[in-house]
Amino acid sequence: MLYRVEGIVIRSMDYGEGNKIVTILTNTHGKAGIVIRGAKKLKSRHGSLAQLFTHAEFVFFKKSGLGTLNHGEIIESHHVLREQLMMAAYASYAVELVDKALQDDEAGSYVFEQLKACLKALAEEKDPQITIHLFEMKMMEAAGYGPEMDACISCGNTDGEFSLSYRLGGILCRRCSDKDPARLELGEGALKLMRLFRRMDMRRLGNIQVKDATKKELKTGMRQLMDTHMGLTLKSRSFLDQMDRYPI
Ligand SMILES: [Zn+2]
Questions:
Q1: Which residue numbers delimit the DNA replication/recombination mediator RecO N-terminal domain (predicted)?
Q2: Does the pTM exceed 0.90?
Protein backbone atom coordinates (compact mmCIF):
# COMPACT_ATOMS: atom_id res chain seq x y z
CA MET A 1 0.00 0.00 0.00
CA LEU A 2 1.19 3.51 -0.76
CA TYR A 3 1.22 5.98 2.14
CA ARG A 4 1.48 9.75 1.94
CA VAL A 5 2.14 11.22 5.37
CA GLU A 6 3.62 14.24 7.05
CA GLY A 7 6.39 13.15 9.42
CA ILE A 8 9.40 14.15 11.50
CA VAL A 9 12.55 12.00 11.55
CA ILE A 10 13.10 10.80 15.13
CA ARG A 11 15.76 8.16 14.42
CA SER A 12 18.14 7.54 11.57
CA MET A 13 20.60 4.72 11.14
CA ASP A 14 22.85 3.31 8.45
CA TYR A 15 21.67 0.24 6.63
CA GLY A 16 23.74 -1.76 4.19
CA GLU A 17 25.65 -0.04 1.39
CA GLY A 18 24.67 3.62 1.34
CA ASN A 19 21.14 3.17 2.67
CA LYS A 20 19.44 4.47 5.78
CA ILE A 21 16.54 3.33 7.90
CA VAL A 22 14.64 6.16 9.50
CA THR A 23 11.86 6.16 12.06
CA ILE A 24 9.41 8.96 11.52
CA LEU A 25 6.69 10.24 13.78
CA THR A 26 3.73 10.90 11.50
CA ASN A 27 0.72 13.11 12.07
CA THR A 28 -1.72 10.38 11.07
CA HIS A 29 -0.17 6.91 11.38
CA GLY A 30 1.86 6.88 14.62
CA LYS A 31 5.49 5.91 14.10
CA ALA A 32 6.76 4.33 10.90
CA GLY A 33 10.06 2.79 9.83
CA ILE A 34 11.19 3.53 6.28
CA VAL A 35 14.17 2.39 4.25
CA ILE A 36 15.70 5.21 2.23
CA ARG A 37 17.81 3.66 -0.51
CA GLY A 38 20.97 5.48 -1.51
CA ALA A 39 20.46 8.11 1.21
CA LYS A 40 24.17 8.22 2.00
CA LYS A 41 25.28 8.79 -1.57
CA LEU A 42 26.46 12.32 -2.23
CA LYS A 43 24.12 12.96 -5.10
CA SER A 44 21.09 11.40 -3.48
CA ARG A 45 17.92 13.43 -3.76
CA HIS A 46 16.74 11.73 -0.64
CA GLY A 47 19.78 12.30 1.59
CA SER A 48 18.29 15.23 3.46
CA LEU A 49 15.08 13.30 4.09
CA ALA A 50 17.08 10.85 6.20
CA GLN A 51 18.46 13.46 8.57
CA LEU A 52 17.33 13.72 12.17
CA PHE A 53 14.70 16.42 12.88
CA THR A 54 13.70 16.77 9.21
CA HIS A 55 10.02 17.55 8.82
CA ALA A 56 8.73 16.41 5.44
CA GLU A 57 6.02 14.79 3.44
CA PHE A 58 6.99 11.17 2.95
CA VAL A 59 5.49 8.94 0.30
CA PHE A 60 6.35 5.30 0.91
CA PHE A 61 5.28 1.84 -0.03
CA LYS A 62 4.63 -0.69 2.71
CA LYS A 63 3.20 -4.17 2.86
CA SER A 64 4.25 -5.10 6.38
CA GLY A 65 7.15 -4.13 8.63
CA LEU A 66 9.42 -1.52 7.11
CA GLY A 67 8.29 0.78 4.32
CA THR A 68 10.36 1.87 1.32
CA LEU A 69 10.59 5.52 0.42
CA ASN A 70 9.17 6.44 -2.91
CA HIS A 71 9.32 10.18 -2.78
CA GLY A 72 9.56 13.03 -0.29
CA GLU A 73 9.26 16.80 -0.02
CA ILE A 74 10.94 18.73 2.77
CA ILE A 75 8.66 21.04 4.74
CA GLU A 76 11.24 22.19 7.31
CA SER A 77 14.80 20.87 7.30
CA HIS A 78 15.63 22.21 10.78
CA HIS A 79 19.27 22.52 9.77
CA VAL A 80 19.92 25.10 12.51
CA LEU A 81 19.20 22.37 15.05
CA ARG A 82 22.03 20.28 13.60
CA GLU A 83 24.56 23.09 13.32
CA GLN A 84 24.89 24.04 16.96
CA LEU A 85 26.02 21.44 19.48
CA MET A 86 23.81 22.63 22.34
CA MET A 87 20.67 22.84 20.20
CA ALA A 88 21.42 19.49 18.58
CA ALA A 89 21.76 17.94 22.03
CA TYR A 90 18.36 19.20 23.21
CA ALA A 91 16.63 18.33 19.95
CA SER A 92 18.20 14.83 20.00
CA TYR A 93 16.83 14.35 23.49
CA ALA A 94 13.32 15.38 22.36
CA VAL A 95 13.25 12.93 19.43
CA GLU A 96 14.80 10.10 21.43
CA LEU A 97 12.16 10.64 24.11
CA VAL A 98 9.38 10.22 21.52
CA ASP A 99 11.13 7.19 20.08
CA LYS A 100 11.58 5.39 23.42
CA ALA A 101 8.72 6.62 25.59
CA LEU A 102 5.72 6.07 23.36
CA GLN A 103 4.09 2.99 21.92
CA ASP A 104 2.82 3.36 18.37
CA ASP A 105 -0.79 3.82 19.44
CA GLU A 106 0.17 6.57 21.91
CA ALA A 107 1.83 8.65 19.20
CA GLY A 108 -1.09 10.39 17.54
CA SER A 109 -1.44 13.76 15.87
CA TYR A 110 -1.33 15.58 19.22
CA VAL A 111 2.14 14.21 19.95
CA PHE A 112 3.20 15.09 16.42
CA GLU A 113 2.10 18.71 16.95
CA GLN A 114 3.90 18.83 20.30
CA LEU A 115 7.16 17.57 18.80
CA LYS A 116 6.86 19.95 15.88
CA ALA A 117 6.33 22.87 18.28
CA CYS A 118 9.19 21.71 20.50
CA LEU A 119 11.70 21.67 17.61
CA LYS A 120 10.42 25.04 16.44
CA ALA A 121 10.83 26.55 19.92
CA LEU A 122 14.42 25.23 20.12
CA ALA A 123 15.21 26.59 16.65
CA GLU A 124 13.79 29.98 17.68
CA GLU A 125 16.14 29.93 20.67
CA LYS A 126 13.49 29.89 23.35
CA ASP A 127 14.92 28.78 26.69
CA PRO A 128 15.95 25.19 25.87
CA GLN A 129 15.61 23.88 29.42
CA ILE A 130 12.09 25.24 29.83
CA THR A 131 11.17 24.01 26.34
CA ILE A 132 12.42 20.52 27.12
CA HIS A 133 10.76 20.26 30.54
CA LEU A 134 7.43 21.30 29.05
CA PHE A 135 7.94 18.71 26.32
CA GLU A 136 8.75 16.04 28.94
CA MET A 137 5.45 16.87 30.64
CA LYS A 138 3.57 16.43 27.35
CA MET A 139 5.26 13.07 26.74
CA MET A 140 4.50 11.87 30.27
CA GLU A 141 0.87 12.77 29.67
CA ALA A 142 0.84 10.98 26.31
CA ALA A 143 2.26 7.86 27.96
CA GLY A 144 -0.45 8.02 30.63
CA TYR A 145 1.72 9.32 33.50
CA GLY A 146 0.65 12.96 33.72
CA PRO A 147 1.15 13.92 37.40
CA GLU A 148 -1.65 15.39 39.52
CA MET A 149 -0.54 18.98 40.10
CA ASP A 150 -3.78 20.74 41.07
CA ALA A 151 -4.95 18.94 44.21
CA CYS A 152 -3.35 16.77 46.90
CA ILE A 153 -3.07 13.28 45.42
CA SER A 154 -4.04 11.73 48.74
CA CYS A 155 -6.97 13.86 50.01
CA GLY A 156 -7.87 16.24 47.19
CA ASN A 157 -7.08 19.38 49.19
CA THR A 158 -6.31 22.37 46.95
CA ASP A 159 -5.16 24.88 49.60
CA GLY A 160 -1.93 25.53 51.43
CA GLU A 161 1.59 24.38 50.74
CA PHE A 162 2.51 21.27 48.81
CA SER A 163 5.43 18.96 48.24
CA LEU A 164 5.95 16.67 45.25
CA SER A 165 5.59 12.95 45.65
CA TYR A 166 7.19 11.50 42.55
CA ARG A 167 6.34 8.01 43.79
CA LEU A 168 2.62 8.74 44.03
CA GLY A 169 2.75 10.91 40.91
CA GLY A 170 1.47 14.22 42.23
CA ILE A 171 1.48 16.84 44.95
CA LEU A 172 0.89 16.20 48.66
CA CYS A 173 -0.56 18.75 51.08
CA ARG A 174 1.03 19.35 54.51
CA ARG A 175 -1.54 17.16 56.25
CA CYS A 176 -0.70 14.20 54.01
CA SER A 177 3.04 14.73 53.77
CA ASP A 178 3.77 11.59 55.81
CA LYS A 179 2.31 9.46 53.01
CA ASP A 180 5.67 9.69 51.25
CA PRO A 181 8.86 10.16 53.27
CA ALA A 182 10.82 10.53 50.01
CA ARG A 183 8.73 13.52 48.82
CA LEU A 184 10.54 16.47 47.31
CA GLU A 185 10.23 19.89 48.89
CA LEU A 186 10.14 22.13 45.85
CA GLY A 187 9.89 25.92 45.95
CA GLU A 188 6.70 27.71 44.96
CA GLY A 189 8.26 28.68 41.59
CA ALA A 190 9.00 25.14 40.47
CA LEU A 191 5.58 23.83 41.53
CA LYS A 192 3.85 26.72 39.77
CA LEU A 193 5.72 25.96 36.55
CA MET A 194 4.86 22.29 36.71
CA ARG A 195 1.21 23.17 37.25
CA LEU A 196 1.36 25.53 34.26
CA PHE A 197 3.10 22.88 32.10
CA ARG A 198 0.35 20.41 32.93
CA ARG A 199 -2.20 22.69 31.32
CA MET A 200 -0.09 24.20 28.56
CA ASP A 201 0.17 23.15 24.94
CA MET A 202 3.71 23.31 23.45
CA ARG A 203 2.36 25.54 20.70
CA ARG A 204 1.59 28.26 23.26
CA LEU A 205 5.06 28.45 24.81
CA GLY A 206 6.31 32.03 24.90
CA ASN A 207 9.49 33.44 26.39
CA ILE A 208 9.46 32.71 30.11
CA GLN A 209 12.13 34.06 32.43
CA VAL A 210 13.00 31.50 35.07
CA LYS A 211 15.65 31.75 37.79
CA ASP A 212 18.47 29.20 37.68
CA ALA A 213 17.58 27.88 41.14
CA THR A 214 13.99 27.27 40.01
CA LYS A 215 15.19 25.54 36.84
CA LYS A 216 17.33 23.25 38.95
CA GLU A 217 14.35 22.28 41.10
CA LEU A 218 12.19 21.83 38.04
CA LYS A 219 14.78 19.49 36.55
CA THR A 220 14.94 17.41 39.75
CA GLY A 221 11.14 17.16 39.96
CA MET A 222 10.63 16.24 36.30
CA ARG A 223 13.46 13.76 36.34
CA GLN A 224 12.27 11.95 39.46
CA LEU A 225 8.78 11.67 37.99
CA MET A 226 10.04 10.38 34.66
CA ASP A 227 12.53 7.94 36.14
CA THR A 228 9.99 6.54 38.59
CA HIS A 229 7.17 6.07 36.10
CA MET A 230 8.80 5.66 32.71
CA GLY A 231 12.26 4.27 33.54
CA LEU A 232 13.94 5.12 30.25
CA THR A 233 17.62 5.01 29.45
CA LEU A 234 18.33 7.76 26.97
CA LYS A 235 21.77 8.23 25.43
CA SER A 236 21.01 11.84 24.61
CA ARG A 237 20.23 12.56 28.24
CA SER A 238 23.66 11.49 29.47
CA PHE A 239 25.15 13.80 26.88
CA LEU A 240 23.00 16.72 28.04
CA ASP A 241 24.03 16.07 31.63
CA GLN A 242 27.68 16.11 30.65
CA MET A 243 27.20 19.47 28.96
CA ASP A 244 25.53 20.75 32.11
CA ARG A 245 28.57 19.81 34.12
CA TYR A 246 31.11 21.19 31.68
CA PRO A 247 29.44 24.20 30.03
CA ILE A 248 30.89 25.27 26.68
ZN1 LIG B 1 -3.75 15.94 51.43
A1: 1-77
A2: yes
